[in-house]
């Protein structure tokens, strides 16, 4: 009798499998492949066409506002308490304010940042934060143009996407909250955090590698630089944290490892793609943003806008990229807003920076351009 049921079950499973493959229309979806590495290395990005179309449609840059009428007095003369955009004409200033409302708070309108009874009032924390975010945007588009954002630049919409709070911000992960009982050490692992692709990797690589603006430039590197060890290497925990960061970057940009690396020689710069150099600078740009613009705003944000540990909201790769290797389909969003590519405070006198006493920080080796398919 047992044999009969085994044979019956196997027969049912067999016919169900045949029916599933024969009637459900199972077939490989249409794929799109982009070669970004050297031929023959398999350094391709493979996506389904439907996935590419969906991500493209979800990342369309808004149309720019009509150009402002030329001429007129400066905004700093027309309005009170204009501290960042005082060098714009009044027409340019009003145009940018309307655009910022659409980029950041289309539902709330001007009242999200302003006391409309007194527009010069700074009592709302949103206005004080927005002022600093304008300076950050100008800083990114000018000081990081050559090494990361290029001519595309960023606007408020790049991160906010029509929402007062960007969807992809992060706080330091405090880990599990054990109030009592025996707690075994987990090395910050096995929490299946989204930041590491829901893997068992350490769940808070972002705080260590993206929040500290003064971190050692070699902190992420765990591969030896020689064929045989010549000194004590880094612990396996550091390798896991680095891999967690790489998973975050991969998911944030919607790419796999071969977008930057030739996986036969992960650490070799000469076999990597030019994108690896761009990413190298991108990591440092994120640290710059978090350390010099976000962290100083900790006391400006109300407590309900801070993390569990009282830390300020921070940015990472996903904040701008939103699953694309080029944010907003690579649109040159700052072309129509040149005021976001330079300091616009009126009558600014720039003092030349003194020559550094020490050599600049480590820079990545030049990467040869990959041949085009």
Automatic annotation (TrEMBL):
Keyword Metal-binding assigned: yes
Biased composition (Pro residues): 353-373
Alphabetical list of InterPro entries matching this protein: Multihaem_cyt_PRC_cyt_su-like, Multihaem_cyt_sf, Photosyn_RC_cyt_c-su
UniProt region (Disordered), positions on chain: 350-373
UniProt keyword Transport, yes or no: yes
Record key words, sorted: Electron transport, Heme, Iron, Metal-binding, Photosynthesis, Reaction center, Transport
Post-translational modification: Binds 4 heme groups per subunit.
Role summary: The reaction center of purple bacteria contains a tightly bound cytochrome molecule which re-reduces the photo oxidized primary electron donor.
Alphabetical list of NCBIfam families matching this protein: photo_cyt_PufC (NF040706)
Protein name as it appears in the record: Photosynthetic reaction center cytochrome c subunit
Lineage summary: Bacteria, Pseudomonadati, Pseudomonadota, Alphaproteobacteria, Hyphomicrobiales
Name of the gene: pufC
